[in-house]
Design a protein that fits this description.
Layout (H helix, E strand, L loop, with lengths): L5 E2 L3 E2 L15 E2 L2 E2 L8 E8 L2 E8 L18 E9 L13 E4 L12 E3 L12 E9 L5 E9 L1 E6 L2 E2 L16 E2 L1 E4 L7 E10 L1 H4 L17 E9 L5 E5 L5 E4 L2 E5 L3 E5 L18 E2 L1 E3 L6 E2 L6 E7 L3 E4 L5 E19 L4 E7 L2 E2 L2 E2 L10 E5 L7 E3 L6 E10 L3 E14 L5 E5 L2 H16 L18 H14 L3 H14 L31 H13 L2 H21 L32 H22 L3 H22 E2 L4 E2 L4 H9 L5 H17 L11 H10 L3 H9 L8 H4 L35 H9 L1 E3 L6 E4 L9 E8 L2 E11 L2 E8 L4 E5 L5 E4 L2 E8 L4 H6 L5
Parallel strand pairs: 14-24, 21-31, 39-43
Antiparallel strand pairs: 1-4, 2-3, 5-6, 5-7, 7-8, 9-23, 10-16, 10-19, 11-15, 11-17, 12-13, 12-16, 17-18, 19-22, 20-21, 25-34, 26-27, 27-32, 27-33, 27-34, 28-31, 28-33, 29-30, 35-40, 36-37, 38-39, 40-41, 41-42, 42-45, 43-44
Helix pairs in contact: 3-5, 4-5, 4-6, 5-6, 6-7, 7-8, 7-9, 9-10, 9-11, 11-12
The protein binds beta-D-glucopyranose.
The site of beta-D-glucopyranose (BGC) has 10 residues, from helix 3.
Length: about 850
């Protein structure tokens, strides 16, 4: 019996949970499950809106991010949409999908008929206390629907009638606040009642006004006053609208949070709690009237991604007590979030928490945190029962916590680590028969989770935690495979665009905060600024999102044009300060930019690569003049690269390192003969390094791929399996549960690298997962959004199987292999409806297949014939 055609409800932009959006023409996507021979020839969309149903028919097979086909939505509107898909004449159609509810919030600045309100505090040093704001209000009848829209300069958490609103954490997250501040919405219908009601808010400094940055950092970066803006949209059963907003009627008081900062941690004193403060009937006569504060409503923007949420809770793996009574808690996983406690004891007793990623000599190693003290404290209330507490407005990167207690703390009933990050949907998985490789992959997943808290950061623990452009540039292919990170990255790219300098320079990190030295004002740096081209390109590749390409097009062009001008039109970029192959393990620990590879070579290679990608973007956007322009620019850079860096006599690169060869191969900068030579040379360089890599941030992501392109998969695999340092697996033997910043963040003897930049949670070197997905298991996109899939697994004798799975915009795709005999394997592939695949077997033969499950038997190696067939192994 053939399977019926079924289609899921339309999905709105890149969101997977229901929330109000800030766009009047949201793009819709749907996924179909159908028999293998079926393909969509048209789709019908129905919109239920203003008590009417409208229907449109769209010819063709489009199902991903389809432009809104109806009239633009208005602010504060709720509509429903559903879809039905049709195959060719003789083929079946689906039933209608379930309805999706689509809700808009304030779409323009004028819709924010609310005042921004704040407390009048005069605290000049940080960390500062949080404040409470409240207001009573009356409603005649229970509303049919009530949506609360809110945002802040600072961080906020809302309550209505004594109940916490929603489950968002660290709202509104960090964006380039002078340009964009995210608003969020909550359905609060169930929290309201006829008669008296109360709305209340906690407001804290967060990124807006707290201390950020290294060397002591900076405070009040975006402003000196925190403020809250809220709009409660009420609908009566008859459909009438009324609003209750933040305004002068609110009052403020100090909160029991006596000090809070993202880097410093949080202190909470229960003795300052005011019972019932967010409920009606509370006497707020001792509170002060709020101040009305300036807030540019034009900066308010609806959510592009899910909010930050508490995603997971972890129990301690071990708890040990030190001689002086401190508890050292090991959660068994380096993670990002906070510790939640349940305690009993006398009033006024104190608990203190410190955090660290690793232990040194049995104690928390906090030196790598630099000036991020990451200490929380709690003063007990002394209730008859247990007291629950966790900090609200701070997060830490830690695996270990140290808890100190004053004498009257009787019992700690539970200790939990709460993992916080943007609530992205997991869409990519990898498994294989080697537990170490699986652990490596798991470590990469955890480093992504810890560094996707609202924006992509370098690290989550020390006094840095910034949106470093180079880090996400190399990691984006993995990030977009593992999680649906499209919304988060689109949001961050808007900040990149907003903060790009007039001359086209892309800051080293975005949002940009004062950094001094080389960092601010920023100068153009290869591999970092290229994020402006390569991250949008990667997003389109993964999610078929042409929208992000058009949105980022001007920014990408301005970057590439700037570099062209830096090369004075020659294509050779040797003139500026570069980080080069940052953190190459042979560089002196305190001078990470001084690696083996000529920074000018790296810069010129990146210029050629970005110009080429930009030409592809131009092609996608139908900008033919630009296609020609950037293709020529890339060719110029390639020619300059050859001229300057290829030694004509030897045919080798004159800055001969693993990184230089890997970049030249992976970025297609050499002619075929030289490429082959570079491949062999690369193998030799690895051999000369006794089977080790000597690559940093920019060489590492392309090292294995370059070996595969030149048919040295065995050498690539051996590097991946290397257990001695520097290597990917070495940290695992030292207990790593995340990816480290340096190959030797922890030294052989278990001590922490003395360098001042030693993080244990940096995703950049985890870029290797791309090779694991695409080469080892064999799953990658061959066209935007995986409409075409490349299945090209590469088995190795020491493994029994490897498999990768990815939920593409069309549905689940899977590729993998398992061993049958010493030299034959079974290759399997699962292709979703709407996609097709090119399957390249290890024996070199190629097959073109459509949707469905496919199995092939193949020799596990190329034979002579196969070798020829698979030439050009890109
Ligand atoms: C960060 C990075 C970044 C680098 C560039 C470091 O401090 O943690 O990962 O890319 O600086 O200089």
């Amino acid at each position: 019996m053939s399977i019926p055609v079924t289609v899921g409800p339309p999905r709105v932009e890149h969101l997977h949970t229901r929330m109000a959006i800030g766009t009047s023409r949201p793009r819709l996507s749907w996924r179909t499950i159908a028999p293998p021979s079926w393909s969509q020839t048209s789709a019908e969309l129905e919109l239920w809106c203003d008590r009417e149903i409208r229907r449109v028919r769209l010819d063709g097979d489009a199902s991903v991010l389809v432009e809104w086909p109806f009239d633009a939505l208005r602010s504060f509107q709720t509509v429903r949409a559903r879809v039905r898909v049709h195959g060719a004449a003789s083929k079946p159609s689906s039933d209608w999908s379930d309805w999706s509810t689509i809700q808009t919030g304030p779409l323009s600045a004028d819709d924010w008929t609310a005042e921004a309100i704040g407390a009048d505090e005069q605290v000049s040093t940080t960390p500062r206390p949080a404040v409470l704001l409240r207001r009573d209000f009356e409603i005649n009848a229970k509303p049919e629907a009530a949506m609360l829209f809110a945002s802040a300069h600072g961080l906020y958490e809302l309550e209505i009638n004594g109940v916490r609103v929603g489950d968002h954490e660290l709202a509104p997250g960090w964006t380039s606040y002078e340009h964009r501040v995210r608003w969020d919405s909550h359905d609060v219908t169930a929290l309201l009642r006829p008669g008296d009601n109360t709305i209340g808010a906690w407001v804290a400094d967060g990124w807006y006004r707290g201390r950020l940055g290294w060397n002591g950092g900076h405070r009040d970066i975006y402003g000196t006053r925190t403020s809250l803006i809220t709009l409660l949209d009420l609908r009566s059963p008859g459909g009438e609208r009324s609003v209750i907003t933040s305004d002068a009627a609110w009052r403020f008081s100090r909160a029991p949070i006596t000090a809070t900062g993202l880097l410093e941690g949080e202190s909470y004193d229960t003795r300052l709690e005011q019972d019932g403060w967010s409920s009606p009937g509370f006497d707020d006569s001792g509170w002060s009237p709020v101040n009305i504060l300036p807030f540019d409503r034009n900066t308010l923007e609806g959510p592009l991604a899910e909010p930050i949420r508490r995603i997971e809770e972890r129990r301690p793996q071990t708890i040990t007590e030190s001689a002086d009574g401190r508890l050292i808690v090991d959660f068994g996983q380096n993670l990002v979030g906070r510790v939640a406690l349940k305690v009993r004891g006398r009033a006024g007793e104190v608990l203190r928490l410190r955090h660290a990623e690793v232990l040194e000599h049995g104690e928390l190693a906090t030196r790598p945190l630099r000036d991020a003290t990451a200490e929380d404290s709690y003063v007990l209330r002394g209730l008859s029962g247990a007291e629950h507490w966790h900090p609200r407005f701070t997060i830490h990167g830690f695996r270990y916590a140290e808890i100190s207690r004053s004498d009257g703390v009787d019992m700690i009933e539970s200790i939990t680590a709460e993992v916080l990050h943007t609530d992205m949907e997991r869409i990519g998985w990898f498994e294989c028969s080697d537990p170490l490789l699986e652990r490596l992959h798991e470590n990469i997943v955890w480093s992504m989770r810890g560094n996707f808290v609202g924006l992509p950061t370098d690290c989550p623990q020390r006094d840095e935690r910034l949106g470093w452009t180079g880090d996400i540039q190399v990691f984006a292919p993995v990030a977009t495979f593992l999680f649906d990170s499209a919304g988060l990255l689109t949001s961050w790219l808007r900040d990149v665009a907003a903060e790009q300098y007039d001359d086209g320079t892309v800051p080293w990190y975005v949002p940009e905060i004062p950094g001094g030295d080389w960092w601010t004002p920023a100068r153009p740096g290869a591999g970092w600024g290229d994020a402006a081209v390569l991250v949008p390109w990667t997003l389109h590749r993964s999610f078929a999102d042409r929208g992000v390409l058009s949105e980022q097009y001007a920014t990408a062009k301005r970057w590439v044009d700037l570099i062209d001008s830096r090369t004075v039109g020659t294509g050779l970029w040797t003139s500026d300060f570069q980080l080069g192959d940052w953190l190459d393990p042979t560089a002196p620990p305190d001078r990470p930019a001084e690696g083996l590879t000529d920074p000018g070579l790296v810069a010129t290679a990146y210029h050629s690569w970005s110009a080429r990608r930009l030409a592809e973007i131009a092609q996608e956007l139908g900008q033919q003049d630009d296609v020609a322009r950037y293709t020529a620019m890339s060719a110029r850079a390639t020619a300059a690269f050859r001229e300057e860096f290829v030694d004509e006599q030897k045919g080798l690169l004159n800055s001969d390192s693993q990184t230089s060869n890997a970049l030249a191969i992976a970025f297609g900068l050499l002619d075929p003969q030289r490429e082959e030579l570079a491949g062999r040379n690369l193998v030799e360089l690895v051999e000369r390094a006794a089977g080790h890599l000597t690559t940093g941030f920019l060489g590492t992501p392309v090292l294995l791929e370059a070996l595969s392109i030149t048919h040295h998969d065995d050498a690539a695999f051996a590097l991946l399996m290397q257990r001695r340092s520097p290597s990917w697996l070495h940290p695992i033997s030292l207990g790593a549960t995340t990816i480290w910043e340096r190959w030797d963040s922890m030294l052989e003897d278990g001590s922490v690298n003395p360098g001042d930049m030693t993080s244990f949670n940096h995703y950049a070197l985890g870029a290797v997962a791309e090779w694991m997905h695409a080469r080892l298991a064999g799953l990658s996109a061959d066209a935007p959004g995986y409409r075409k899939i490349l299945v090209r697994p590469q088995p190795f004798p020491s493994l029994d199987f490897a498999r990768a799975r990815h939920r593409t915009p069309f549905g689940i795709a899977e590729a993998g292999w398992s061993r049958r005999t010493a030299n034959s394997i079974e290759v399997t592939a699962e292709i979703p409806t709407g996609a097709s695949a090119r399957i390249v077997l290890p024996n070199g033969t190629e097959h073109h297949v459509g949707p469905g499950s496919h199995t092939f038997i193949s020799a596990d190696r190329l034979d002579e014939v196969g070798q020829r067939a698979s030439a050009g192994n890109r």
